[in-house]
UniProtKB/TrEMBL annotation, chains A, B:
<dbReference type="InterPro" id="IPR010982">
    <property type="entry name" value="Lambda_DNA-bd_dom_sf"/>
</dbReference>
<feature type="domain" description="HTH lacI-type">
    <location>
        <begin position="3"/>
        <end position="58"/>
    </location>
</feature>
<dbReference type="InterPro" id="IPR046335">
    <property type="entry name" value="LacI/GalR-like_sensor"/>
</dbReference>
<keyword id="KW-0804">Transcription</keyword>
<dbReference type="Pfam" id="PF13377">
    <property type="entry name" value="Peripla_BP_3"/>
</dbReference>
<keyword id="KW-0238">DNA-binding</keyword>
<dbReference type="GO" id="GO:0003700">
    <property type="term" value="F:DNA-binding transcription factor activity"/>
</dbReference>
<keyword id="KW-0805">Transcription regulation</keyword>
<dbReference type="InterPro" id="IPR000843">
    <property type="entry name" value="HTH_LacI"/>
</dbReference>
<dbReference type="GO" id="GO:0000976">
    <property type="term" value="F:transcription cis-regulatory region binding"/>
</dbReference>
<dbReference type="Pfam" id="PF00356">
    <property type="entry name" value="LacI"/>
</dbReference>
<protein>
    <submittedName>
        <fullName>Transcriptional regulator</fullName>
    </submittedName>
</protein>
<dbReference type="InterPro" id="IPR028082">
    <property type="entry name" value="Peripla_BP_I"/>
</dbReference>
Length: 332, 332
DNA sequence: CTGAAAGCGCTTACAG
DNA sequence: CTGAAAGCGCTTACAG
């Protein structure tokens, strides 16, 4: 596949060993003079190192594999930017594999693609692995770490927001804004990750602390999608109880918002919404969605750093409430 | 890095040659009986083939590298899905590289990451390469193809929509809806790709065919972004001339829509909008955006097919007008 | 400072 | 049907 060090050796008269040394910059093992000659020849011939060969002999790789869902998780981009930043600083490469929209088979394909070549580690962006795929991943001797979702299982490492805190803060904020009947919509309570359950726990805690008894009907679980938001709104509308809703993602928030409009409900006058995530989606809808904003860039950066440094502890990144236009103070 | 065929050879008593043959399924070169033994051993030891080694010796690769912009091109997902589909059918792997937000350096990093290992080809998703990076790409002996943008340069292959046709159809549609003063916003006229220029040409053609003289002020170029849409709307508002606008992307359309709302303009009553792209964004805003819808999935599928088959012609994929809520018929 | 040689994990003519 | 051997593009002790 093109020019090799052998070609350069032939061209310059040096041995492949020497060529290899200057091309991989083994300081002290060559004179400046021969370096100049060899580099010139490399440039002239358009040499490109075959990293696969290097990885084969050195038995280590400098590539990080990211596995992402192809589902509409509009925040993966920020996470990836954070990873790239850290990777660049540490002189690592990153490749991305698509795991499809929560299908066992495409998950497996992505995993296999990553595992069947030398990589230094795997970062999984909010992909909730099927049991057999988790087993596959564990059986490989490759470090890995989840980003943006967390687990109870102590053998699984992650960098994520503190989802308990997210549920707690969102609820507390709405209570401070005068709401007492507060919905929680679009979170996944069935998943292997305990993201949804944690948010629910934080939500319940905040309610109880303020003397509010959580009602079962206030909770409309879902899979974090736009349609989950639409469906939840339909259900809330039948009950006519809640005055404010926390949505499991921005997309759930937008679905809910648009369904509310169809039902002739005005947000925030008739109904307040706070979305969890805080990506650009919150800013491009009308009214703009108030959100619990997660620091996705930081998640990516930290996740990459831990992977690169071989650190195995978990970490939480910061969250904050970003006030926009979808929550209204309710006078009692 | 884990179990190798040598380990399996030792375990089973066969030579590495035989192990290799059954593991890579060279039909006719082994008995069913030894296959059973070897496969069992491989499963037991948790063997994972090192494809990098295979690629080194066979001098060919089955991985397709996709290079994408990290910019908010919300349609890349559909393209990638199409590519994955074809790749899976042809038993190829795909890896994705992020080229950042139009920075020469991160483009180069993505390109290098792809080129410094064996790959069968490169697919570039709407990435407008800097001159030096295009040169780098051409100097490698790797087939490549652009997707979703087209070029004049005959050495560059692409699969895209016919942008002339897009400009033409969008304009014709608005004229049929009774509009005569029609804006074109957020398209890039400077880029190396001729996407923007083609759309402009189609637009002008449709205007002229209907006896309308194109006005320079009707054209507000930009970089296909949300902010380009906001800015364009501000400019149009000062002029108060156009009654309908074609936007270079869905995101431009949304930016324009929201800016219009800030200016107390009602879409579609005061102003009609048709967006080019037609991704889910058009459906999650209010009012929903009418669009010239591109078939991104098909672009990806076809692009991958051509790359895999070594076909070098260009191709156009279908477009269609999808009517939603942002264009209103204007009675004359 | 430089070269010859061994070896990373795999495949594949060649011989049997 | 199976094995010994050479080789893909690189790196790195070892010797000089």
């Amino acid at each position: 596949m093109g020019i090799t060090i052998k070609d350069i050796a032939r061209e310059t008269g040096f041995s492949v060993a020497t060529v290899s040394r200057v091309l991989s910059n083994k300081e002290g093992f060559f004179s400046q003079k021969t370096a100049t000659i060899i580099n010139a020849a490399a440039a002239k011939l358009g040499y490109k190192k075959n990293m696969a060969a290097t990885e084969l002999v050195t038995q280590k790789s400098n590539v990080i594999a990211i596995i992402v869902n192809s589902t509409k998780t509009n925040f993966s981009e920020a996470i990836i930017d954070g990873i790239q930043k850290k990777a660049t600083e540490a002189n690592k490469r990153v490749i991305i594999l698509y795991a499809g929209d929560h299908h066992a088979q495409s998950q497996q394909r992505a995993l296999t693609t990553a595992l069947e070549r030398p990589i230094m580690g795997i970062l999984l962006l909010s992909v909730d692995l099927f049991a057999e795929n988790l087993k596959l991943l564990k059986s490989a001797r490759v470090p890995f770490r989840f980003i943006s979702i967390s687990f109870k299982d102590p053998t699984l490492n992650y960098v994520a927001s503190d989802d308990y805190q997210i549920g707690y803060e969102a609820t507390k904020y709405l209570i401070e804004m005068g709401h007492r009947c507060i919905g929680l919509a679009g979170i996944d309570l069935e998943s292997g990750a305990h993201t949804g359950k944690q948010r629910l726990a934080g939500y319940q805690r905040a309610l109880l602390e303020n003397g509010i008894i959580p009602q079962k009907s206030w909770i409309q679980p879902g899979n974090y999608s736009y349609t989950a938001g639409e469906q939840a709104m339909l259900n809330y509308h039948q009950q006519k109880k809640v005055t404010a809703i926390i949505t499991g993602s921005d997309l759930v928030g937008v679905g809910l918002l648009n369904q509310a409009a169809k039902l002739n409900l005005n947000v925030p006058n008739d109904l307040s919404i706070i979305a969890i995530d805080g990506t650009y989606l919150c800013k491009i809808v009308q009214p703009q969605l108030t959100s619990v904003t997660q620091d996705f860039y930081q998640m990516g950066y930290l996740g990459a750093a831990y992977l690169i440094n071989g650190q195995y502890q978990n970490a939480f990144t910061d969250i904050e409430i970003t006030e926009r236009q979808s929550v209204k103070k309710r006078s009692l």
